[in-house]
Amino acid sequence: MIQLDKITLRRRDGAGYRHVLDNLSWSVSGAQQVALTGESGSGKTTLLNILAGLLSPDAGTICINEQFIHTYNATQLALYRRTIGMIFQHYQLLSPLSVADNMAFQARLNGRAVSREDIALMAKRLGLGDKLDAFPTQLSGGEQQRVGIARALLNQPRILLADEPTGNLDSERSQEVLELLMALCKEQQVNLIMVTHSRALAAQLPRQVELRDGRIHE
Ligand SMILES: Nc1ncnc2c1ncn2[C@@H]1O[C@H](COP(=O)(O)OP(=O)(O)OP(=O)(O)O)[C@@H](O)[C@H]1O
């Protein structure tokens, strides 16, 4: 469950300040899948960063799965971040590591044991069963993004924040990636918040919201 109450965040804009998020309140129930849309610069990435505990708002309260993260110190935030998965437009895979090691990277960083079987099972589910020993540069964009999904999900997050996860892919690959992402999040009861510029993709998620004038509009 995500509960944001009266979140305000200002950014410097020329000589003054601009409210990127302006008294924003929003709630998302557990395991819901939500598409977050909005014009360029409307604050979508900013909002994801706040949910990820990477950015503190100027005002407002943030309650995520019963944790009031706006009250957390740096150590508590670091622990909180381990429960969050993130997927990016530019996959951010580590090129010297194999696909298998990239997949396990986040979970291992967080001290979670990931067996070869866990990795193989996830790879198979994502159609990457024969790519485990390959390196990121040997993969297509869609395959690299699927490795990014595996990396996030093997860490068993409660919430998955996806920032334009299909932004680099053609429409066929985008559709494939979205279907896998939604199916896996449903199976694992993961809360999915996905930023997208594509109306066609957004329409496939059970809930769509728009960030406009610093607030969420249903
Ligand atoms: N580090 C920063 N310092 C100052 N202003 C920033 C910073 N990061 C973002 N901004 C500003 O905050 C606003 C919101 O940016 P954000 O990246 O959240 O928008 P967005 O909706 O994700 O945009 P896009 O769809 O283009 O990715 C923009 O006006 C941006 O210029």
From TrEMBL:
Record flagged with keyword Nucleus: no
Start and end residues of each ABC transporter domain: 2-218
GO CC annotation: plasma membrane
Keywords: ATP-binding, Nucleotide-binding, Transport
One Pfam family recorded for the sequence: ABC_tran
SUPFAM superfamilies: P-loop containing nucleoside triphosphate hydrolases
One annotated GO molecular function: ATP binding
Protein name listed in UniProt: ABC transporter ATP-binding protein
Organism: Pseudoalteromonas rubra
Lineage start: Bacteria, Pseudomonadati, Pseudomonadota, Gammaproteobacteria, Alteromonadales
